Amino acid sequence: MTSARSEGLLVAVYVRNIAVGTSMQSTEDKQALAILHRYQPAVLENFSSRAVVGDGNCCYRAASLALYGDQKHQLPVRLLAAVEVLQFQEHYDASCRSYLG
What we know:
52% of the residues lie in helices and 0% in strands. The chain is mainly α. Helix 3 crosses helix 4.
């Protein structure tokens, strides 16, 4: 838990100061659009497919895009995910009773 407290301080310093954008800074993902249009067109009534950089950090980039309107905040999002797992390890460890699956 000590490490979770120190990472929590990093969150207080770095994540708190991220400005939320008013517009989405990304392009439409044409391939995902075609798949959604074919199999789940109702999704496109409220959502749009967005492209993110496929560099191994795409999950964090997608979360950054959804939360802040820009992919560039993927490192603080990754930090938030790490702090979450450190602080609530019992929810993510399959050997614990309070594992959430």
